[in-house]
Amino acid sequence: MKTFFVTTALAALLLAPAALAKPSQFSQGRVLSSAADYQVLSPRQRVPVANQLTTQRLEQLLPKLMAESGLDMWLVINREYAEDPVYFTLVPQPTFAARRTTMLLFSRNDDGSIDKLSVNRYPLGDPYESAWAGGNLTEQWQALAAEIVKRQPGKIGINSSEHWPVADGLTSGLHQQLLKALPAEYHSRLVSAEQLVVRWLEQRTEAELELYPQIVSLARSVIAEAFSNKVITPGVTTTDDVAWYIRERFAKLDLLVWFMPYVNLQRAGMACEADNPFCGSSGVIQRGDVLHTDVGICYLTLCTDTQEMAYVLHIDETDAPKGLQAALATGNRWQDILTTEFKAGRSGNAILAATRKASDRAGINSSTYTHAIGFVGHAPGPTIGMWDNQGDTPVQGDWPLYANTAYAIEGNIKQAVPEWGKQLVHIKLEQSAYFDGKQVIYLAGRQTRWHLIR
To answer: Where does the record locate the signal sequence feature (predicted)?
Structure first.
């Protein structure tokens, strides 16, 4: 991480009229207030929606991605208690485990269509055709091998990868069983399916993009509830109280959190050093505090990752101090710098380097650590910086940017606040967005104004 030292001259630059731009000048700003404004389907109601999404992906997306990856066949083989990371994105719901040993076989035909087969003791049903069911484990492996030989594939993708955990789901034991079951001449046809797995997990369909704004809106709306007097009484409420409100509010909505929400505070007199990667503490919330939260939920197969900021007003205040308003505006400027560098085909490392250069040129003390989102919160795709590494990230950082992929636009800026005696404030922002091939569009808008607690 690059070390920045904020001089008086730089502080003046950051508080110049450009930095004091009104929030309305930043596009896609959106204020939300309550999760009660949004429908949340019951667990039972979610099943047909999720299954329709999965079927559409298998029918519309998988043929293109298998051709793109040069695979004639793809095998997903896993066992109960050791499920492949990609398994649950492929099977109909409700599915809670790969019962005993579960085998999926995807075979590409000459016309580009995909045969979807299950080789399982317990058939999965649509959209899978059962190629075998009901016998013992030895017969199951023999049935899988017979199906492979019958189809004569050239390249057979298996989920084995050195660098991508999501593409490394075939265990050593199952790999050995596969080699034992297959004729020797097929061993050399087994290749890593990591290209296909990453593309399958990162690529969003039109139907998913229809739903995603609702999911992100729910996450942002619960943050808005938490950062209000509905939850916070200055001088009484703690940061942990707010974090648990968020957690329990999602539980009441039957929404899964993929990490424990957390809330921290900054205040005048609580030093924030320029080279400290994260500033903030916990405790009782007081008037004049700056609050930050990080929240992630999953709903209808898709996950979010969101960070927002709040200010607790003094009794004689009606808005956040001008210095804090300017700092949030600088955070929005950093977001715009980053998203302007999103170009199809450009690597995550290249996007990061261009963002850092432009941010430095603008005099912004920033750190960028943006990542893909989708079926999981930290999804595969181009890594655009890491909080502890603002240089190149091997492999994941070299991955190119594709159209119709989703991201957590994540990072932070530090800026001097005159009202705090030029002490630095740390503005930590993260908003879920997607890249349509030409521009980045925030799925439920972004924060351009402070949450205010009275």
So the answer is: 1-21
By C-alpha distance, which of 95, 174, 175, 181 is closest to 143? 181
Compute CA 74 distance to the chain's CA centroid, rounded to the nearest angstrom.
25
Is the backbone of residue 269 left (phi > 0), alpha (psi -120 to 50) or beta?
Answer: left
Rama region for 403: left / alpha / beta (φ>0; ψ in -120 to 50; rest)? beta
Q: Is 302 helix (H, G, I), strand (E, B) or coil?
A: strand
pLDDT per residue as tens digits for the range 10-37 = 333 233 333 344 544 689 999 999 999 9
Beta-carbon contacts of residue 49 (< 8 Å; ≥ 6 apart):
41, 211, 300
- The amino acid at 321: P
Q: DSSP string of 54-98?
A: HHHIIIIIHHHHHHHHT-SEEEEEEETTB--TTGGGTSPSS--S-
**Whether pLDDT at 357 is above 70:** yes
Domains along the chain with CATH numbers = 8-41+204-453 (3.90.230.10), 72-192 (3.40.350)
Q: Give the Cα separation of 115 and 153 in Å (integer).
A: 13
Q: Which of 22-36, 49-63, 187-201, 258-272 has the lowest mean pLDDT?
A: 22-36
How many whole angstroms separate alpha carbon 392 and alpha carbon 385?
7
pLDDT in tens, 175-184: 999 999 999 9
Please, what is the average pLDDT of the chain?
A: 94
Answer for the pair 104, 118: CB distance below 8 angstroms, yes or no.
yes
CA–CA separation, 3 and 275 (whole Å) = 5
- Write the single-letter amino acid at 353: A
SS3 261: coil
Residues 383-391: contacts with CB under 8 Å, at least 24 apart: 383/348, 384/338, 384/348, 384/351, 384/352, 384/355, 385/348, 385/352, 385/355, 385/411, 387/1, 387/277, 387/278, 388/1, 388/277, 389/1, 390/1, 390/2, 390/352, 390/356
DSSP states of 332-401:
HHHHHHHHHT--TT-BHHHHHHHHHHHHHHTT-EEEE-EEEESSSSSEEEEEE-BTTB-S--TTGGGPBP
Angle of the 137-151 helix axis to the 172-181 helix axis, nearest 10: 60
Cα of 394 vs its chain's centroid, Å:
19
